[in-house]
Amino acid sequence: MANISVSSVERGLVILELLVENSEGLPISAIARRLSLPLSATHRLLQALIGADYVKQETASDRYLLTLKLGAIGLRQLAGMTLNQAAQPILDDLARKTGELVRMAVVEGDEMTWMAEAQGATATIRYHPPISGCHVPLHTTGMGKAWLASMPEKEAVAKVVARGFEAEFRGPNAIRTVAELRREIRRTRAMGFAFNDQESELGLSAIAMLVKDRSRANRVVGAVSIAGPTFRLGREKLVSFAEPLHQAIGHLEQIWPIGAHAPAGRA
Length: 267
What we know:
Number of domains: 2
Helix content: 40-55%
Radius of gyration: 23 Å
Strand content: 15-25%
CATH topology of the largest domain: Beta-Lactamase
Oligomer: single chain
Order of helices and strands: HHHEEHHEEHHHEEEHH
Distance between the termini: 52 Å
Strand order of the largest sheet: 4-3-7-6-5
Structural class: alpha+beta
CATH superfamily of the largest domain: GAF domain
Number of helices: 10
């Protein structure tokens, strides 16, 4: 077996990550400088990566670039995963960062369905009702309102009216009229995310954002929410979750679309 040190493996992986971020390639001097490595060590690592077919060197510019091998490995891994399997680490990470319940729903035809979750709360009081696999109520949840705000207003209102305002999950602040719905759609559209302020049930607050398929003209394919007890999640706290939620959405969009999924989740 080849005598490969842990530090060499780590440095090789860092080089791959650097080249992923610089698709146009980098000269060896730039790689060495950015990673604070001697030129000689950088050259040895690059030659090892070239030998393994992860990196190539352009003869005209002497820049080092990634081959397609790394991407092909990732695609093979994703091809063998369900959506739940691929998305779960991202949801778990978001739950750890926020310390609250994270849920994901997917768009299926004319409905949105809960299908994955991760619990980050360690406090005694947690929001964590059983996963039900139900359709997401569109006007009483953050996820549903975010989806409605992505549609033409007339279409969004028609969807809710067709289903009725008497949702299965309805809290004291639930929208009850078309006028309220229109105002909330416009407010959500302006913010770029949606809140649930005790609208799906008493004592629950949440923030939600949409997931879009970049390969299909940014079509809405799902949503992710962060939810917890209202006494712990005031409006300011929910807004502070917007950035980590946005980052998690970005990671999900990078791996979308993925294979088949199974329903599972109310926020």
